[in-house]
Design brief:
Elements (H helix, E strand, L loop, with lengths): L2 H15 L5 H8 L7 E2 L1 H8 L3 H9 L7 E4 L2 E5 H11 L8
C-alpha cells in the first residue's frame, strides 16, 4: 500500500468515525488539509484499487476525475476532483424489508 493510499484510508476512517456516511465522507475528504492538495496518478490508482496503466487509460478516454496537466507528460489530480468523482460513484442502497 502506498503512503498516500494509507493516509487516504486513515482519513476516510477518521471521518467515518466522526459520524459521516456515504457521500458526506467524500465531502469531508475534499476539504481535509491532512491530505495533499494534489495527487499523482499512481496514488489515485492505488486509492481506487486500479493499476496505474488502467487509470491512465481512463484519462486517455476522457473519463473522470478531472486533472491538471503540469507538462506534456505529467498530470496531477486535485484532491477536490478525486473526492467529487468518488462521491459521484458512491451508490447508497436502501435496505428492503
Amino acid at each position: 500500500m502506498t503512503d498516500i493510499r494509507t493516509l487516504f484510508s486513515e482519513r476516510q476512517a477518521h471521518w467515518t468515525s466522526q459520524g459521516f456516511k456515504g457521500r458526506e465522507v467524500y465531502d469531508q475528504l475534499a476539504a481535509d488539509t491532512y491530505l495533499p492538495a494534489q495527487f499523482q496518478p499512481a496514488d489515485v490508482a492505488a486509492i481506487c484499487g486500479l493499476t496505474t496503466h488502467a487509470f491512465t487509460q481512463r484519462r486517455f478516454k476522457g473519463m473522470k476525475p478531472d486533472f491538471i496537466r503540469i507538462s506534456s507528460n505529467h498530470v496531477r489530480y486535485p484532491r477536490e476532483s478525486i473526492c467529487s468523482w468518488m462521491a459521484e460513484m458512491f451508490i447508497s442502497q436502501k435496505a428492503t424489508a
